[in-house]
């Protein structure tokens, strides 16, 4: 009997079930009502009283050992994923996971780029940290122009080879970089982030996004500018959107204009978005000032060009009726998930 107990003890110690079925077989074999433990107890009844004294203790210890081992394995099998996988129904459909969506500003940026690409424009980018030359001087800003003031510009470093270093206040700086690097024709749009030192509110932010446009070649006229922008607006906001140009002033264009479109929300009838005027301003534009061409090493007696610049936030607000600029940078998922789109 002792040798049987030793043998079973070794077997039980080495036992490790691969699944719940094996564990159940183990239980029946050793602990079941007709199992080996029961056999041992039956056999125990037949041994001499002397043997009983020593074997009794051994047998009880063995019983405890076998039961504890079974209990332990059972607990393990209930928590282990291996044995749980037996219970899983592999034919069930998988759990879906939430798809992200594009940020509305990036959606509109993409749309703007696609429209201008169809019109033959390239896409270019420039640095967000700029020097005074590219952000102001080359663009014909007079020395005392208020835009250079600490009020608007985030300065990083005073003085430098090309003047103070600052965060660019507009993407017009990329025009300069492009023209400095070659000779006409240039036909490109330049999207990017810009920075201004303004208090954050529903209507202003310290950073926002712009798209700059530039076309320089021989015989480029204001009529070309109007036609391009008209086509752009029809594509972006739909056929029948009206445009109007109002004279304006920018240091880097002459003549300069601001372009309004018929309000996309009320179609011109008058609403809060257009302040009941029926028109909303969407961009600034004009013919590139000859001084700017010359500053960039381009012969202004041979070449002319037009330029325009628009804020992506403004274009987006008009497309999706968003009235608070802060929504764009708060990353509130309830706002962002309204722009569900195919991820491409
Ligand atoms: N840079 C101007 C701004 O930030 C926008 C602008 C106006 C760009 C007229 C141009 C332009 O290229 O011709 O307000």
TrEMBL record:
- Provide the residue positions that the database annotates as binding Mg(2+): 254
In the record, the note on similarity to other proteins reads: Belongs to the class-II aminoacyl-tRNA synthetase family. Phe-tRNA synthetase alpha subunit type 1 subfamily.
Q: Which UniProt keywords apply?
A: Aminoacyl-tRNA synthetase, ATP-binding, Cytoplasm, Ligase, Magnesium, Metal-binding, Nucleotide-binding, Protein biosynthesis
Name the major location: cytoplasm
Q: How does it assemble?
A: Tetramer of two alpha and two beta subunits.
PANTHER family in alphabetical order? PHENYLALANINE--TRNA LIGASE, MITOCHONDRIAL, PHENYLALANYL-TRNA SYNTHETASE
Q: Which cofactor does it need?
A: Mg(2+)
> For this UniProt entry, what's an example GO CC term?
cytoplasm
* Cofactor binding: number and manner: Binds 2 magnesium ions per tetramer.
Q: What is the lineage of its organism?
A: Bacteria, Pseudomonadati, Bacteroidota, Sphingobacteriia, Sphingobacteriales
Q: What name does the UniProt record give this protein?
A: Phenylalanine--tRNA ligase alpha subunit
Where would you find this protein in the cell? Cytoplasm
Reaction it catalyzes = tRNA(Phe) + L-phenylalanine + ATP = L-phenylalanyl-tRNA(Phe) + AMP + diphosphate + H(+)
Molecular-function GO terms, alphabetical: ATP binding; magnesium ion binding; phenylalanine-tRNA ligase activity; tRNA binding
- State the organism of origin: Hufsiella arboris
* GO BP terms, alphabetized: phenylalanyl-tRNA aminoacylation
Q: Where is the Aminoacyl-transfer RNA synthetases class-II family profile domain?
A: 108-338
Report the Gene3D superfamilies cross-referenced here.
Answer: Bira Bifunctional Protein, Domain 2
Per the record, the coiled-coil ranges are: none
Question: What Pfam families has UniProt attached to this entry?
Answer: Phe_tRNA-synt_N (PF02912), tRNA-synt_2d (PF01409)
List residues traversing the bilayer.
none
E.C. code: 6.1.1.20
Entry superkingdom: Bacteria
């Amino acid at each position: 009997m002792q040798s049987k107990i030793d043998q079973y003890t070794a077997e039980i110690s080495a036992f490790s079930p691969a699944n719940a079925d094996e564990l159940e077989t183990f239980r029946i074999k050793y602990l079941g009502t007709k199992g080996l433990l029961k056999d041992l107890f039956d056999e125990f009844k037949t041994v001499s009283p002397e043997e009983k004294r020593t074997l009794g203790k051994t047998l009880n210890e063995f019983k405890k050992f076998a039961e504890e081992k079974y209990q332990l394995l059972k607990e393990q099998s209930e928590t282990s994923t291996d044995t749980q996988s037996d219970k899983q129904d592999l034919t069930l459909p998988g759990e879906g996971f939430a798809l992200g969506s594009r940020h509305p500003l990036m959606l509109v940026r993409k749309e703007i780029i696609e429209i201008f690409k169809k019109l033959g424009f390239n896409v270019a980018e420039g640095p967000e940290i700029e020097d005074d030359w590219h952000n102001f001087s080359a663009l014909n800003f007079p020395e005392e122009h208020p835009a250079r003031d600490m009020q608007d510009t985030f300065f990083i470093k005073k003085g430098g080879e090309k003047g103070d270093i600052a965060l660019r206040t507009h993407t017009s700086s990329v025009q300069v970089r492009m023209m400095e690097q070659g000779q006409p024709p240039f036909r490109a749009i330049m999207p990017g982030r810009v920075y201004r030192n303004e208090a954050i509110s529903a209507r202003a932010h310290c950073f926002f996004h712009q798209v700059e446009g530039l076309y320089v070649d021989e015989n480029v006229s204001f009529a070309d500018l109007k036609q391009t922008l008209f086509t752009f607006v029809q594509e972006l906001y739909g056929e029948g959107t009206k445009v109007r140009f109002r004279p304006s002033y920018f240091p880097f264009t002459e003549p300069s204009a601001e372009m309004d479109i018929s309000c996309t929300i009320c179609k011109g009838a008058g609403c809060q978005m257009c302040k009941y005027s029926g028109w909303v301003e969407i961009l600034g534009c004009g013919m590139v000032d000859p001084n700017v061409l010359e500053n960039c090493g381009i012969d202004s007696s041979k070449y002319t060009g037009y330029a325009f610049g628009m804020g992506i936030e403004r274009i987006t607000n008009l497309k999706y009726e968003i009235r608070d600029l802060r929504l764009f940078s708060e990353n509130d998922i309830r706002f962002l998930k309204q722009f569900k789109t195919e991820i491409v």
